[in-house]
Design brief:
This protein is mainly beta and 529 residues long. The chain is built from seven helices and 37 strands.
Length: 529
């Protein structure tokens, strides 16, 4: 290999037999393909930065993997340009949380979360009347908020404090501090990942996924990008599409099965689709968790790490040890001799991005107050405390008593047809309730109650389901291999759970009899199915 050339050591290729990404060496790849493979062919993936790489050859004919020169600006320590340093955020490699909140159709706001600061940092900044400005980052930096005074009236000591920057979408945000403090940057990194024009993925609650985060099959995610051409593979189901302001669009998406096409779709947006996500959860002691903050009272904290990952913590004065439980889990023990510390998990020791992080804070925890519950009654004052009903309340009217501000969604066929803001402490009357709709009541961002009014299945429907199930079980003819393509039939079977269960079992088995396909096709043409 010529001087200056460098082969990537951490590259994988899709293994169709095992249906997963598998590590591959350049010599092995050369034997399989026998020629150069460009990045655009999307065959080889860098395990460090989730970018497709090329297979090429040196002047001596030795194969090696390489990034293209115009690869993503995000640093990958396995690249040849090792003069860069990833420490653009902080020692643990995380960005502050970014959240998008949808109020109504096309109406949204972006919020940036600030972690609680240690008392000594708070005291130092507060004593000097320190402020922070949130700005866009780039060639033209624009202030998005007035200077925020860093004091205990505006920033919480125990939970994340979220500040709205309205509808200002940017690829990165920057924090400007009037008073510098070295420790401050450990908790509030100066650069915050935003929303890329090519696309950024959020979870269903509106929280931005970190770069290189894991996504799972069957979970709903929000993809936000600039309006433009985007091809969805058949394995990715688009459940909703909202055109936002300023040429942006939001899609609600679900990966329906784990395959290479679905995995490649998520990789385009810096997210890994996997069946075994890397994550960690607090096990002991009993604690109170708000967003990224865990409040506890113990001298040691135990976390369970699921999947492969590298645990980091700051300050590093406290002891941290890891014991393997099995191939998929590890037990992490962290000494709590330091009152407040950050813990993050990265895919590897390069820390090109933190997959997740929490702040452990040791303090006395007050008993949780008994909160008032959301009360729903009909117009006669009778409480509606069941999750579902087969009849609408008298007059199609319900009255909702909610202790806090929030909102109500009226849902029909999984689509929000009406949205109402509610004020805490004031009764809200909702009329025109009909069968087939559901009422979701939110307090803040949390769904506290959901009531569904379901049309009771008629006896004739029960007979139809039993008859169809009998015919399908008795189907004969040639055995036909099937895949997830016949899952389209399930859309027609929402009211027939036994038929749907039979169909899903057939998909798992991978075959049906020839007559069963004919029966299913006839069902699609029926008006009463």
């Amino acid at each position: 290999m010529a001087n200056g050339e460098h082969t990537l050591k951490h590259v994988c290729v899709w293994d169709n037999g095992r249906n997963q990404w598998a590590h591959i060496e350049p010599e092995e790849a050369a034997k399989i393909y026998g020629h150069r493979i460009s990045c655009s062919e999307r065959v080889f993936l860098c395990e460090c930065c989730n970018k497709f790489v090329a297979l090429t050859y040196s002047k001596n004919g030795n194969p090696f993997f390489t990034h293209t020169r115009n690869a993503d600006k995000k640093f990958c320590e396995d690249k040849s340009c090792s003069a860069y340093s990833y420490r653009q955020y902080n020692s643990l490699g995380f960005s502050l949380p970014v959240r998008i909140v949808f109020k109504e159709e096309r109406d949204f706001e972006i919020k940036i979360g600030f972690l609680p600061l240690p008392s000594n940092v708070f005291d130092d900044i507060e004593k000097r009347d320190g402020t922070v400005n949130i700005c866009t980052k780039g060639s033209y930096e624009k202030a998005l908020t007035a200077p925020l005074l860093i004091d205990r009236e505006r920033f919480s000591e125990n939970v994340c404090t979220y500040y709205s920057i309205r509808q200002n979408i940017a690829e990165q945000y920057k924090l400007f501090f009037s008073q510098e403090n070295e420790e401050l940057h450990k908790y509030w990194p100066g650069v915050i990942d935003g929303i890329s024009q090519s696309g950024t993925i959020f979870d269903e609650s509106g929280n931005r996924l970190p770069d290189d985060a894991d996504a799972e099959v069957g979970h709903e995610y929000i993809l936000i990008k600039k309006v433009g051409c985007l091809k969805f593979p058949k394995e990715i189901r688009k459940t909703k599409e909202i055109f936002l302001n300023h040429g942006w669009i939001a899609y609600n998406i679900i990966a329906e099965n784990f395959c290479q096409n679905a995995a490649n779709f998520f990789i385009e947006f810096g997210v890994s689709l996997t069946e075994n996500p890397t994550r960690f959860v607090p096990l002991w002691p009993p604690a109170v968790q708000y967003s990224h903050v865990v409040l506890h009272e113990a001298n040691e904290v135990f976390l369970c790490l699921h999947g492969d990952g590298c645990i980091e913590h700051y300050p590093r004065k406290a002891a941290c040890q890891s014991d393997k439980i099995d191939d998929a889990h590890s037990l992490i023990e962290i000494s709590a001799e330091i009152i407040q510390q950050l813990v993050s998990v990265s895919r590897s020791s390069w820390k090109t991005s933190a997959l997740g992080y929490i702040m452990l804070k040791k303090q006395a925890i007050a008993p949780l107050p008994i909160l008032e519950k959301v009360l729903t009654v009909d117009i006669a004052g009778n409480e509606l405390n069941e999750p579902s009903y087969h009849a609408v309340p008298n007059g199609g009217v319900i009255v909702i008593h909610a202790p806090f501000d929030g909102y109500i969604n009226v849902i029909m066929s999984e689509i929000i047809i009406e949205h109402y803001e509610i004020n805490g402490g004031r009764p809200f009357t909702l009329d025109r309730i009909g069968l087939g709709c559901s009422i979701a009541i939110y307090q803040g961002l949390d769904c506290e109650r959901k009531i569904s009014f379901i049309r009771e299945k008629r006896q004739t429907e029960i007979s139809v389901e039993a008859n169809m199930l009998k015919r399908l079980r008795q189907a004969k003819g040639n055995v036909i291999p099937v895949g997830h393509s016949i899952a389209r039939f399930t859309v027609k079977l929402k009211q027939y759970p036994k038929l749907k269960q039979w169909l899903l079992k057939s998909i798992r088995d991978g075959f049906v009899h020839e007559d069963a396909i004919a029966i299913l096709n006839s069902m699609l043409r029926r008006d009463d199915i």
